């Protein structure tokens, strides 16, 4: 198979030919029809993820067709259209037994713990637990954007933030996760304030339902602006970027007893950002993490998509070839297009 491979961190990846994968007894091999290029992949390539063993094939946002099935798999057949969460559960630990595969104690992540989807084929383990059936009405490029960005935002807004109609929600960072969160929070009836430093992304946030936008590069005091617009502060605020500044602002712009949801990864030099603990205590704020979404929760999100209440297809940006993937991966720290970049040609 053709695949993108890097042999050293921070060295240019190459498109090479590798052996096709074979399914494990409980797994499947998926013919990849589309796979997203995500900032998490860039962090992996930079050497920020201890799970990656070199040489490595990145890629964790994928959709495709089942190509081969392990002997113990019961629920899937060759030809099934599928996608997969970027966190795959083991099925045996206490968290998996509680239905919380997104924090599985022995989790696996294609593109991190084993070779991923920047390839013609990818192996997925424990298929009966981790695969998600893809409705015919959802195209592969759109489905590839669900696994990390859109599903992560759905759980952050709906399950962790428990956002309800009429609440004020601040979204800090309008990349793939942030724009997804804007759309989802708006769909459940919230008043959304979107914050970014890129006017094009803020314009798209308004199209997706944001009631207000703030350009953080304009010298505006972001927390003060959110508090003023919302009449006292956000009920729920998400840091969808993963930066000390956006994390701090997201906490400070909350009203009393508000919820901060940290979605953007804090890696490298940003692993331990400062937080305003006196404010957290004095205002009884909740600080929550959100890490992906379980396969069994995809149904609610997919139902909203097929009903037309959510339109993740609007968040698909550039469609590129596998040959263009190395350059797109290396450039994730310098420039991210409006919408998700998706590999659709192999």
Attribute tags:
seven-stranded mixed beta sheet, 12 helices, six-stranded parallel beta sheet, ER, 346 residues, alpha/beta, metal-binding, Rossmann fold, oxidoreductase
Please characterize this protein's 3D structure.
It holds the Pfam family ADH_zinc_N. The chain is built from 12 helices and 15 strands. By secondary structure, the chain is α/β, with parallel strands linked by helices. The protein has 2 domains: 2-148 and 293-345, Quinone Oxidoreductase, Chain A, domain 1, CATH 3.90.180.10; 152-289, Rossmann fold (3-Layer(aba) Sandwich), CATH 3.40.50. The strands form 3 sheets. Strands 3, 4, 5, 6, 7, 14 and 15 form a 7-stranded mixed beta sheet that branches. Strand 1 and strand 2 (14-17) form a beta hairpin. The protein starts with a strand and ends with a strand. The mean pLDDT is 95.
Give the topology.
Layout (H helix, E strand, L loop, with lengths): L1 E4 L8 E4 L10 E10 L1 H8 L14 E9 L11 E3 L10 H4 L23 E4 L2 H4 L1 E2 L6 H5 L1 H15 L7 E5 L3 H12 L3 E6 L2 H9 L4 E4 L6 H9 L3 E6 L4 H9 L1 E9 L14 H6 L3 E4 L8 H9 L9 E6 L3 H6 L9 E6 L1
Parallel strand pairs: 8-9, 8-11, 9-10, 11-12, 12-13, 14-15
Antiparallel strand pairs: 1-2, 3-4, 3-6, 3-15, 4-5, 5-7
């Amino acid at each position: 198979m053709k695949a993108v491979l890097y042999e050293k961190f921070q060295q240019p990846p190459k498109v090479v030919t590798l052996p096709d994968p074979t399914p494990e007894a409980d797994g499947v091999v998926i013919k990849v029809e589309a796979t997203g290029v995500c900032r998490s992949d860039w962090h992996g390539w930079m050497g920020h993820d201890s799970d990656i063993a070199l040489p490595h094939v990145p890629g964790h946002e994928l959709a495709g067709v089942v190509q081969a099935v392990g002997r113990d798999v019961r629920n899937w057949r060759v030809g099934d259209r599928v996608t997969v969460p970027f966190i795959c559960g083991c099925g045996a630990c206490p968290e998996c037994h509680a239905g919380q595969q997104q924090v599985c104690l022995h989790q696996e992540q294609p593109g991190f713990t084993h070779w991923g989807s920047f390839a013609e084929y990818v192996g997925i383990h424990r298929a009966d637990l981790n695969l998600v059936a893809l409705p015919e009405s959802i195209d592969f490029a759109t489905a590839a954007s669900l696994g990390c960005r859109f599903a992560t935002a759905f759980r952050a807004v709906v399950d962790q933030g428990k956002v309800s109609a009429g609440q004020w929600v601040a979204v800090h960072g309008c990349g793939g996760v942030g724009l997804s969160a804007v759309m989802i929070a708006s769909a459940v009836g919230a008043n959304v304030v979107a914050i970014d430093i890129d006017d094009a992304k803020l314009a798209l946030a308004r199209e997706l339902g944001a009631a207000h936008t703030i350009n953080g590069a304009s010298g505006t005091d972001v927390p003060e602006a959110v508090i003023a617009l919302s009449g006292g502060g956000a009920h729920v605020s998400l840091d969808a970027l993963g930066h000390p500044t956006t994390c701090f602002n997201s906490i400070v712009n909350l009203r009393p007893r508000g919820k901060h949801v940290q979605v953007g990864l804090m890696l490298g030099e940003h692993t331990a950002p400062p937080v305003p603990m006196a404010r957290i205590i004095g205002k009884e704020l909740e600080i929550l993490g959100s890490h992906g979404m379980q396969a069994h929760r995809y149904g609610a999100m997919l139902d909203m998509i097929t009903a037309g209440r959510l339109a993740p297809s609007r968040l698909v940006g550039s469609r590129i070839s596998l040959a263009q993937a190395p350059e797109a991966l290396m450039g994730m720290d310098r420039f991210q297009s409006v919408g998700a970049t998706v590999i659709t040609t192999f």
